[in-house]
Amino acid sequence: MKRARKRGSGTQDLDAEIDALYALSPVAFTAARNALGARLRGEGHKTEATKVKGLKRPGPTAFGVNLLHRQRHDDLEALLEAGDEARAAQLSALKGEHVEDLRAALDARNKAVTDATHLAAELMREAKVSVSAAVEDRLRRTLQALADSPNGRDLLAGGRLLTDVDPPGLSVLMGLEAALPTRPRRAGDRDRELRKKQVEQQKATARKLAEAKARREQHAEEDRERAEAKARARAEADEAQTKEEAAQARARRKAEADKTRSEKEVEQQRKRREAEQRRKQQTAEAKARKHQQVEETRQIAALRRRVKAAEGDAAEARRAQTEAERAAARARKEAERTARLAEKAEQGARKAEAKATKVEEDLADLERELRDALR
């Protein structure tokens, strides 16, 4: 039997993978959780797979708080510290100490809640998660509940919050009451009455604070409801006004259309007549241009024929001129040859004459010698 492969770092790896699941949007959580469980089961880690399979998908509000825990932990810690300071100021006020600091501490807590709400909503939008007004209001309530609760850090579950967190209510105030110091018991009815009255006053103060908080929340809720009602009424009024304006605009357009229909028809008839006249004029102009083009074509053809004939005559004249030039060249060559022959004949005659003269001189010399010899 094939043994299951051990996981590299055991629980730490699984915790890291679960943290990665809770970093996903609620839409992507279920598919990723099922895929992780199937992979773990396929690797033989049945216990881990069962644990992963049982993980609950966080709601939109919890997802926003988890984003704050992961991405802006310092801002979330500042909110929790503001809640700690507000509870400490309430405890001091119940003791009758530093009552003037209570309002500033509560205002700081409320501002921290508002800032954290806006920041969480922005992180959700960056993660492509829709944030409606209702979701943002639930974010604010949950963050305020975490700030007001003494164990708010534990409720965060290390960034794996699943649902909205309810306000702590009277339990916190009772815890504050329990934290108040009590006077040491003394003998006598007067001391017991005094302690009893002190406890009753403390309870009354706690109830008043709780009632005041409840009234503030109720008033805030009523204000929100009134604001939403006003917004809806304004939206409905705007929509009705828009519809009325649209109906009036349609009526005006229809009246204007009816009024201008006849004018348009007259204008269209006039345009049709003008178009017909332009068409006839264009047809006549086209015929004239065509006739002119035909005449110009005929004239151009005749001119081309004359040019061609003139070019033929010029070519014939050039050929005759060339032939005459060739005959003249031949005549010049023949004359030059005859002159050279005559010059050669003349030179031969001069040479023959010179030879004859020399022969005569030789004969004369011989005759003289002969006469001299005969003497």
UniProtKB/TrEMBL annotation:
Region (Disordered): 181-364
Compositional bias of kind Basic and acidic residues: 186-200, 208-247, 254-279, 308-364
Name this protein carries in UniProt: Uncharacterized protein
